[in-house]
Design goal:
227 residues
Length: 227
């Protein structure tokens, strides 16, 4: 696994990786811009009638704006893994093809086609977003511990992302049902891929390249296990 991770990081300068990175980054930023606008608009329309006087004063004196900013930041942090994964998956075929062309030229898979790529991307992104939303109360409760939300974030997303990325790679080589079952039958690979990717997502700057590294890492793990 360490070797696969190092190879994945080393290929980040590949032109195919950079093309996907810029497209996915632009799409992710557009989605988050819309999300931030929606949250701030929602907070601005909250009615304070019936609230205690002191709370109304705090809210109208800037508390509402601060609450909106904090809520937006929390949603961006929790949602980044899902949105970035969904965005990168739209072009993940290019990443897998680049890794296979360099390291596994005799075992290249077949292109998925735009229809299946979009389907896998949307499904992966939505699953990651929904599971993180379900754990939102736990994230909030663990805020008092300082590092608790980060540990929970890595654990939850390691399990999710490992499945998504391994299935994406397996889909180029196996029938649909077999590809979907591959992560469950290779749990150590799933955890290894997921932990490496979720760990990158947990770091603000490195999170930008996390989806690319995750797909590349899963490609190496799939081929090494298949061999």
């Amino acid at each position: 696994m360490p070797a696969a991770f190092i190879l994945s990081l080393a290929q980040l300068g590949d032109p195919a990786f950079l093309r996907v990175l810029w497209r996915a980054l632009i799409l992710t930023l557009l989605v988050f811009a819309l999300l931030a606008w929606g949250v701030m608009a929602m907070v601005a329309h909250i009615e304070t009638d019936g609230w205690p006087g002191w709370l109304q004063t705090v809210w109208t004196g800037g508390g509402g704006g601060i609450a909106g900013f904090l809520l937006t930041g929390l949603l961006l942090w929790l949602g980044f893994a899902g949105v970035a994964t969904g965005a990168a998956t739209l072009w993940q075929d290019e990443i897998i093809a680049a890794v296979e062309a360099r390291y596994y030229p005799a075992a290249r898979g077949f292109p998925l086609g735009l229809h299946r790529e979009i389907g896998l991307g949307l499904a992966a992104g939505l699953r990651v977003l929904l599971w993180n939303a379900l754990f939102l109360p736990a994230y909030l409760l663990l805020l008092v511990t300082g590092i608790g939300p980060l540990i929970l974030f890595v654990a939850v997303n390691a399990w999710l992302l490992g499945r998504e990325y391994l299935e994406m790679v397996a889909a180029r080589h196996l029938p649909m049902a077999a590809a979907a079952a591959w992560p469950a039958t290779h749990r150590w690979d799933r955890w290894g891929t997921g932990l490496a990717t979720a760990g990158l997502f947990a770091v603000p700057v490195l999170g930008i390249v996390a989806p690319l590294v995750g797909v590349a890492f899963a490609t190496h793990m799939f081929h090494r296990r298949a061999a």
